[in-house]
Amino acid sequence: MKNKFLFSIIPATVVLFSACTNHPKVNNELEQKLVQKNCSNEFFTQEMSKVDKKDDPVYVGLNAGLIAKNCGNFNLSNEFFDKVEESYQVDVDLRSGTQKVAKTAATTLINDSILDYDGSLYERIMVNVYKGLNFMSEGDYNNARVEFKRALLRQDRAKDYFKAQIAKNKAELEKAKKEDPNFNKNFSESAKQINAQYDALFEEFSTSENFTNPYATYLASIFYYMSKDYTLAKDLFKEIKILNPKNSEINKEWKVISSANQKDNNIFVVYENGFGVVKDEFKLTLPLILNDTLTTTSIALPKLKKRSQSFEYLSANDTNTTKLVDLDNVVASEFKFEQPSIVTKAIVSTILKTTINAAVANNDSTGGFLSLASGVMSATTTQADVRSWRGLPQNIGVVMVKNTGKITIKTPNNDVLFEKQVNPNKNVLVVVRSFAPNIAPSINIIEK
Q1: Rg of the chain over CA atoms, in angstroms?
Q2: Which residues on neighbouring strands pair with residue 395, listed in sequence order?
Q3: In what order do the strands lie in the sheet with 319-320?
Q4: In the predicted structure, residue 100 carries a pLDDT above the cut 60
Q5: Domains identified in the chain, total number
Q6: Which burial class, exposed, middle or buried, applies to 258 when counting CB atoms under 10 A from its CB (0-12, 13-18, 19+)?
Q7: What span, in angstroms and rounded, lies between the C-alpha atoms of 225 and 256?
Q8: pTM of the prediction?
Q9: Distance set, CA 82 to CA 37, 58, 132, 168 (Å)
Q10: How far is CA 399 from CA 183, 212, 265, 343, 435, in A?
Q11: At CA 125, angle to CA 396 and CA 224, rounded to 5?
Q12: Helix (H, G, I), strand (E, B) or coil at 392
């Protein structure tokens, strides 16, 4: 009876996971569609169908929504982002206790890639930021206000989320200790090797224990300023000033936004620079003790892979942008916080798979077939989940200039990227998205 079960579950598991091993390939394809502005109706219809069928709706919706935004199709972009938020609320935030237990059990035996992508906290904040910008682009300032409020609310709730995550990490660890008599020794030795690897990986980033995304706060402040809600604009920009006390550009903008004199109109340029950090995989071989016997096994974990920026800065009417925030560090801060849970889950999963393989080998009456199949399953499912929202920027630069009726954007080499007349009687927000120096940027102008 036991053999029949293994005969059925092992091939089924391998088949199930085979559909998930293409995530790196899909990641790259989505990124190419983004930078090449693949705006075909066929593509968007296909992606919307996936979202409607609940086929990994958060992962699909985030990436398709950003591609639509880059195509200038702001309404369609928000359709995707709306469905992502709906999936957060229905499929993620409101998941029942039984469903959460089932998900944990499934992903411990196999890995996170077999189930729908839940997304990260920083991604949720950026969903509302981009929805706000989309609504501003469509002239819908009432809905834009709602989105920026949501972005700020998500940011405020980050602390509560992290407190709950700490408690969850402790509970998972205690449960694992009870299930494996050798857990303490296996876990401590494995965790020591893994954490040493992560310590080296984090040297590329500047992480913070206080999770915040200044980009969301900055854009919300500019939104309120352009909407003539000067009190709120000032209150929000004060947070930016506190984070950047020695930044001359921020101090210059603070004087304008906090001033009671609002007669002059200004152009605010936001520069979304390069490719943001993404998830990659690394593997380690770890020693484990099973039934007083030393064995070795492979473990797969996600890591952050830093990528290239575009131009170091841009100039707007001959005034250079200054860096407001390194979004890679925002992502790394959240990832570092999640690291204990990631490591614990990966080690528990590895111990479980190794224990199953050993049990199969010791009770294999099929001449080695079950042992082989069990080993194949273990090797096939030892993969890290590398899904993420592709195409987010590496860092954000900003600059403010007086509105004289014209905006000229140049590269550090003094090449003109963009030049256009604007209404001198309005405040203007210019969002420049540049992926790489050899790729034409997307430029969105919002006047109010």
Answers
A1: 25
A2: 273, 326
A3: 319-320, 315-316, 406-410, 416-421
A4: no
A5: 1
A6: middle
A7: 10
A8: 0.82
A9: 21, 10, 12, 29
A10: 54, 21, 14, 41, 19
A11: 70
A12: coil
The answer to whether 125 and 85 have CB atoms below 8 angstroms apart is no
Name 171's Cβ contacts closer than 8 Å, sequence gap at least 6: none
CA–CA gap between residue 139 and residue 168 (Å, rounded): 43
Instruction: Check: CB of residue 236 under 8 Å from CB of residue 221.
Output: yes
The residue ranking higher by pLDDT, 378 or 397, is: 397
430 strand-pairing partners: 269, 445
Q: Which residues contact 375 (CB under 8 A, 6 or more apart)?
A: 357
Transcribe 295-319 into DSSP letters.
EEEEEEEEEEE----S-S--EETTE
Residues 441 and 270: their CA atoms lie apart, in Å, by 13
Helical residues (DSSP H) of 53-120, grouped into ranges: 57-70, 74-87, 97-109
**Which amino acid belongs to residue 363?**
N
* Mean pLDDT, rounded, for 7-32: 63
Token pair in block for residue 129: 């930021």
Q: Which of 155, 125, 115, 71 is nearest to 387 (CA)?
A: 115
Spatial distance between the Cα atoms of 251 and 243, rounded to a whole number of angstroms: 11
Is residue 54 predicted with pLDDT exceeding 60? yes
The set of residues, in sequence order, having a beta carbon less than 8 Å from that of 124 and lying 6+ positions away, is: 88, 154
The structure tokens listed for 106 are 């499934």
By mean pLDDT, which of 207-216, 321-330, 344-353, 389-398 is the weakest? 344-353
User: Domain range for residue 20?
Assistant: 2-447
Highest mean pLDDT out of 16-25, 131-140, 378-387: 131-140
Neighbouring C-alpha atoms within 13 Å toward the C-beta of 3: 11
**Could you tell me the end-to-end alpha-carbon distance of the chain, in angstroms, rounded to an integer?**
72
Q: What is the DSSP letter of 89?
A: I
Q: 236: which 2 tokens? A: 């929000």
Identify the residue with better confidence: 205 or 448.
Answer: 448
- From CA 119, how far away is CA 385, in angstroms rounded? 11
- Compute the residue count for the chain: 448
- Structure tokens of 33? 């569609």
